[in-house]
Design a protein that fits this description.
Structural class of chain B: mainly alpha
Strand content of chain B: under 5%
Largest sheet of chain A: 2 strands, antiparallel
Shape of chain A: globular
Distance between the termini of chain A: 79 Å
Largest sheet of chain B: none
Structural class of chain A: mainly alpha
Strand order of the largest sheet of chain A: 1-2
Oligomer: heterodimer
Radius of gyration of chain B: 16 Å
Helix content of chain A: 55-70%
Largest interface: A-B, 13 and 13 residues
Number of strands of chain A: 4
Radius of gyration of chain A: 30 Å
Order of helices and strands of chain B: HHH
Number of strands of chain B: 0
């Protein structure tokens, strides 16, 4: 049994830093406890300097609400130059420090793994028995293997940078400790998610990050739109979580175990391409579609931009939303058994990528562009893992974490500057609308250069990281279309090979659109004349070093991240590092999907790379030629768009359609049938009031017999006595 | 002899019942109740003799004792009702009406 191989004592990692794996999530959890405790203390010292001294509530949330009302509350990100929280200093140290420690430990474990050499079985550390009932035995166990370590490094590494960025970005917020408490808690749960050695432990993290996402989207909850966005994210994710649960139940019902190692060992008993394994995979994918914002459950992610921008960077771009990709890579042994499920994943991913990219073309809110871009890039990742290219999918996950975190933090830095400028002049303009920006390269040179690096990376221009990872996915899809299990299978009656060729073509179209909308964002934000306003221009300035520092690091990673996994066709260094690293975890699943065709470099491969590069550069050129930032007017002067443009701007009216098709029928059904009909009609009136009425009626009959006339009683007694006598006599 | 005594007892009891059921004056009803008690006493005595057992006579003594106490209490109640209502007609006394 594989489980025996993974026995803790004999494992090569047993005596290394890996035995402290439990500390990885505990460190951020400790940070959560400290910051959470500090957040309970009133934001300001009582006294003359107290901005809430004028009879306002001392509670941080309430003080914020008052402040918000005074400023008129611009939509989305909002910075309130009040005064720093009295414990902001402690929080600024604790929040990022626990992450940095976690990252250090992760690096130590990574180095130990690297020096341990070939490690076939993962290192599983069992902490305690969590649920033991009947056949079900779930221990709280963490699994250290190549896949989980990649995720841990990304989460703690990018997480540390974003925490440091947040120190500058959230500086003046009264909820500063609360913010860091939530952020620390998020990282703790995210680490549980990726380290869990069984589906239930993973699910704990899965739900925990959902909770933190909800809390952070609605961080400025005094604005109803923000609170609603949080609720939307939470509720839409419930749909996906239902799928996850069903998949777990099905797994347990058939395999009697939920540990990854044991499931992987006994998965073949489910039967290759059986209806059962396809069902399980599709239910898991439903969970992924919710968490990773894929069609049709992507609608929560654009709204999630209501949270602070570093949250969007950490949770809604770099880590949490990629949990679905991780889950599929982790469950590769299941998906590899069902070509149907694999192609479904790839199809949904591709359609999502294309769909979101078209919407991204016409968004004006800088964060909305990035949100749709995130959905689109997640679609790419699913295209990759769906095609059984788990290493390519994970590679894109890693590079995306770099460049998308950079883009979000860069946009945060832009919004920070815009907001500060508007705050100085007391203007209530939208600080996130690109029509109010323009020409920012003059004022924010560092952000400008770094965001161009990220844009080139996401557009797929060599030699930036996104080029290699996107090319890896597209190349894998093309290769699967040519040969392998997927090409030979059928999907909804269509030959798998044809479907995959179409997906590849759509992937190229999406790459083209990606280049256009990202260039559009850069042009409108940083190029052309400035549209912020005469008075505001004097106050536009680069962000402080706590914010630009992390940007520089992410910029470097976005630029060179491609070297993690160079394709064989471009041997600019060691080839396929990440692929070799992940080989022990996903290698057999990849082989099952891809077949055993050799990996020799062909002219087709060069052609594919050339096509991808040409498409990306063409997209950028088209955007530069077609878009005229100089012709743009500020938001307040903008004329409404028409036709298809308007449909794109309104996001295909998907939210409205969901409202009409799902939300409204559900609400009215709940109100008219469940509430008025069943709850109030049957339960309240029939059962509760009905039984009371029955008792009252019977009592009324009894009370009518109580006439108070002794004679009547005497008659009743006499007749009763006679009846009893009669009964005894004539029985 | 015993048959006659039992018959007489039944007659007395019936007269008592009819009195209780038909009359409205509390004193008369009270007297009729006494009549019923004594009818029962009579049948006890007769059956005691029939069975040659003293148990019946013991019961009669008990009944007479209780009846005496009951008469005292009952009459006291009737008197206080009369003081209150200036009447002992039971049709007027229905304080226990539900």
């Amino acid at each position: 049994m594989l489980q025996d191989l993974a026995a803790v004592d004999t494992h090569p990692l047993a005596a290394t830093a890996a035995r402290y794996v439990g500390l990885l999530p505990l460190l951020p959890l400790a940070g959560f406890l400290v910051n959470g405790a500090l957040s309970l203390i009133p934001a300001y010292r009582a006294g003359p300097g107290d901005p809430s001294a004028a009879g306002h509530d001392h509670d941080a949330g309430a003080a914020h609400a008052v402040d918000h009302a005074e400023q008129g509350g611009a939509a989305g990100d909002d910075h309130h130059a009040v005064a720093r929280h009295r414990f902001a200093g402690v929080v600024s140290v604790v929040g990022p420090l626990v992450l940095a420690l976690s990252f250090g430990l992760a690096v130590a474990i990574f180095l130990a793994m690297a020096s341990a050499g070939e490690m076939k079985a993962p290192y599983v550390q069992r902490m305690f028995d969590w649920m033991v009932t009947g056949d079900l035995k779930i221990s709280w166990a963490f699994q250290v293997d190549q896949l989980s370590m990649i995720m841990v490094l990304v989460i703690t590494g990018v997480g540390t940078l974003i925490h440091i960025f947040s120190v500058g970005y959230m500086r003046d917020d009264p909820g500063y400790p609360r913010y860091f408490a939530y952020l620390n808690l998020f990282v703790a749960f995210m680490l549980v998610l990726v380290l869990g050695a069984s589906y239930p432990v993973l699910f704990v993290g899965w739900e925990g990050v959902g909770l933190c996402s909800y809390l952070l989207i609605g961080f400025w909850f005094s604005e109803k739109a923000n609170a609603d966005a949080g609720k939307k994210a939470f509720i839409v994710n419930r749909i996906g979580d239902f799928g996850f649960l069903i998949a777990m139940f099905l797994l347990f019902a058939n395999l009697r175990t939920l540990d990854f190692i044991a499931v992987a060992a006994s998965a073949p008993t489910l039967g290759y391409n059986s209806a059962l394994v396809t069902t399980i995979c599709l239910f898991f994918f439903l969970g992924c579609a919710g968490k990773s914002a894929q069609l049709p459950l992507y609608v929560w992610l654009p709204d999630a931009m209501a949270g602070p921008t570093p949250v969007s960077a950490l949770i809604h771009a770099a880590t949490m939303v990629t949990a679905g990709v991780y889950l599929i890579a982790r469950s590769g042994f299941l998906f590899a058994m069902s070509p149907t499920a694999c192609i479904t994943v790839a199809v949904v991913g591709t359609l999502t990528a294309l769909f979101a990219a078209t919407i991204g073309l016409k968004q004006w809110d800088i964060k909305k562009v990035l949100a749709y871009s995130t959905i689109s890039q997640l679609g790419y990742m699913f295209m990759g893992v769906g095609a059984g290219a788990y290493a390519a999918g994970m590679f894109h996950l890693v590079t995306h974490a770099f460049f998308k975190a950079l883009l979000f933090l860069g946009s945060g830095s832009v919004i920070f500057a815009m907001h500060r400028a508007y705050h100085h002049t007391g203007s209530h303009e939208d600080a996130q609308d690109m029509r109010n920006m323009g020409g920012l390269r003059k004022y924010m040179p560092v952000t400008f250069v770094l965001m161009w690096i990220a844009t080139l990376a996401i557009a797929g221009v060599p030699p930036f990281s996104g080029f290699f990872s996107k090319d890896g996915i597209l190349g894998a899809v093309f290769a699967r279309a040519q040969h392998g299990a997927l090409a030979e299978s059928t999907w909804l009656g269509m030959p798998g090979s044809a479907v995959l060729y179409v997906l590849y073509a759509l992937g190229l179209v999406t790459a083209f659109l990606t280049a256009i909308y990202m260039t559009r964002m850069m042009l409108y934000t940083f190029h052309g004349p400035n549209r912020t306003g005469e008075a505001e221009q004097a106050h536009l300035a680069e962000a402080p070093w706590t914010m630009t520092g992390p940007l520089v690091v992410l910029g470097a990673l976005s630029a060179v991240g491609g070297w993690l996994n160079l394709p064989a066709a471009l041997p600019l260094g060691p080839v396929g590092l990440l692929e070799h690293w992940l080989e022990p975890v996903v290698g057999s699943a990849t082989a099952a999907v891809a077949g055993t065709v050799g990996e020799e470099v062909t002219s087709t491969e060069f052609f594919l790379i050339g096509a991808a590069v040409a498409i990306a550069i063409l997209g950028i050129v088209v955007a530069v030629v077609r878009l005229k930032p100089a012709a743009l007017v500020p938001k307040r002067d903008a004329v409404p768009s028409h036709g298809f443009e308007h449909v794109l701007e309104e996001k295909y009216y998907v939210d409205e359609i969901y409202d009409d098709a799902v939300v409204r029928p559900l609400v009215s059904g709940s109100r008219n049938i469940l509430w008025t009909g069943i709850d109030r009609g049957i339960i309240d009136n029939l059962f509760v009031n009905g039984s009371a009425g029955l008792a009252r009626g019977v009592g009324w009959i009894g009370s009518q017999m109580q006439s108070g006339e002794t004679g009547a009683y005497a008659w009743a007694i006499a007749i009763g006595a006679l009846a009893v006598l009669g009964a005894f006599t004539f029985r | 002899m015993i048959a006659e005594a039992l018959f007489f007892s039944a007659v007395l009891f019936t007269i008592g019942i009819i009195g209780v059921l038909t009359r409205r004056n509390a004193i008369i009803i009270f007297m009729c109740v006494e009549l019923m008690l004594n009818a029962v006493n009579l049948s006890f005595i007769a059956l005691s003799r029939l069975h040659a057992s003293a148990n019946g006579q013991v019961f009669v003594l008990f009944v007479m004792t209780i009846a005496a106490a009951e008469a005292a209490v009952g009459l006291a109640i009737i008197i206080s009702i009369f003081r209150h209502h200036k009447s002992v007609d039971l049709r007027n006394i229905n304080l226990l009406k539900g």
